[in-house]
Amino acid sequence: MTPLARALLLSITLVGVFLVAAFSLQAWWLRQEAAARGEASERLGHTLDAALRLAPRPPEKWDERYRRDLSQLAQADVQLERAPGSPPAGPDNVFATVTLAGHPGWIVTAAGHSPTLERLRRSHQRLFITTIFLALLLGAVPLVFSLAGSRPAVERDTRAPWRRDAAGLEQFARLTVERGAALEREHDARRRAEEDLQVSRTLLDRSLEERIRLGRELHDNMSQTLYAVSLALESVRKKMTAAPAIEERLDQCVIELRRLNQEVRAYIRELEPENLRRESFPTALASTLKGLVPDHVALDQRFDPAALELIPAEHASELVNIVREAVSNSIRHGRAQRITLRAAHDAGALALAIADDGAGFAPDQTGAGGHGLANMRARAAALGGTLQVESAPGKGTRVLLTLPVASAS
Question: pTM for the whole thing?
Answer without folding.
Answer: 0.40
